[in-house]
Design goal:
single chain; two-stranded antiparallel sheet; Arc Repressor Mutant, subunit A; 9 strands; binds fe (ii) ion; 2 domains; 37% helix; Rossmann fold
């Protein structure tokens, strides 16, 4: 390969553990992307590693950049051809968009309409709480998935951090035995509580910082938890650890999201190993299940500075994989104050 040391040069410029496969992902992503935001959304490479990758590609004359526009040069295209690389061929099911649950029939079509109506006046996402919520379709699809896996109807649901309003969507459906929401943002707590009161929904919401131990009455009290963790390694273990502490025992299930934007596969590996060590098994892993509404603070996030991007994203670019775990060998989960860090070099949107 003519650019044999390209990968090594990039590795030396970033603490993010990327692989040579990531280089391939960026190059084939550039075949389809027209802008930086397109590329970020397409290529499944940690955002923090993109600036040095793009820099070195430019240095080698493989990539051309004008403002936010990016394109491969003829030698970039030649390199891809010589390697025999090709972009992934998208052929997702148009009915479920690859989520495995269709929102086109009852009761989900109506649930989505009602959910869109009640979430219209929701508080805006806050960067200081690492908020960035999913589309209404994603929230309702999560509820549909929980049901499809037998984790909602007649079950006790714990929602850990709920800027996605999963608790309200599940309460609108009304099939869970109980729904308990823990949320740190007082504005969001107020909104969820007031909406539930107004619509007479069976849902309990408590203002709670997950860095504090779980309240004693919530320990081993749930069949299912769902959460969208902070993506530092410690942050993920904190959110999942609180969820595990809340589960009743064998057969209880948990749902969580993880991105490729802010978590390298090396981080995925460490996390999955940790999950298994906690006595749980990963039963489902749904690529690009979660789609996030572009948040207003995009201009303040560090990835914007890294990439020197000029314009706001025009389409959804931030997505995450949805995982389901199930407990097979429950352990004793420590319920201590958080002593880890929400910081890590792969985080890009804080
Ligand atoms: Fe489908």
């Amino acid at each position: 390969m003519a650019h044999a040391d390209l990968y090594e040069r990039v590795r030396q410029k970033t603490p993010v553990p990327i692989t040579e496969r990531d280089l391939e992902r960026v190059l084939v992503g550039l075949l389809q992307a027209e802008s930086l935001w397109d590329l970020v959304g397409l290529c499944d490479v940690p955002l923090a590693a993109l600036p040095p990758l793009l820099e070195e590609l430019q240095r080698d004359g493989l990539l051309e950049r004008r403002g936010d526009r990016v394109s491969l040069t003829p030698s970039g295209k030649q390199l891809i051809e010589a390697q025999g690389w090709a972009p992934p061929v998208e052929s997702r099911c148009s009915r479920c968009r690859g989520r495995g649950v269709s929102l086109e029939e009852a009761p989900y079509r109506e649930l989505l309409e009602r959910f869109q109506e009640i979430s219209r006046d929701r508080p805006a996402p806050r960067q200081d709480f690492d908020q960035g919520y999913v589309t209404p379709e994603t929230t309702v699809a999560r509820v549909a998935l929980l049901r499809r896996r037998g984790d909602l109807d007649g079950k006790r649901l714990l929602v850990l951090g709920d800027d996605d309003l999963v608790g309200l969507a599940a309460a609108l459906l009304g099939t869970a035995r109980t729904i308990t929401v823990l949320e740190v943002d007082p504005d969001l707590v107020g909104f969820i509580r007031e909406t539930a009161r107004r619509l007479e929904l069976a849902l309990e919401v408590r203002e709670h910082d997950l860095r504090d131990p779980l309240p004693p009455d919530l320990l081993k009290a749930f069949d299912t938890f769902t959460t969208d963790p902070v993506e530092s390694y410690d942050g993920c273990r904190l959110f999942l650890g609180r969820g595990l502490s809340g589960l009743a025992g064998i057969g209880s299930a948990g749902y969580f999201g993880l991105t490729r934007h802010e978590a390298s596969l090396a981080k995925w590996h460490r996390l999955q190993r940790w999950v298994v060590e906690q006595g749980a098994v990963i039963t489902d892993c749904l690529d690009r299940f979660n789609e996030y509404v572009n948040w207003p603070y995009w201009g303040e996030m560090r990835a914007r500075r890294w990439l020197a991007v000029e314009a706001a994203p025009q389409a959804i670019w931030y997505r995450s994989t949805l995982f389901r775990l199930e407990l097979v060998e429950p352990k004793a989960y420590p319920n201590e104050p958080f002593a880890g860090s929400f910081e890590d070099p792969e985080l890009a949107t804080t």
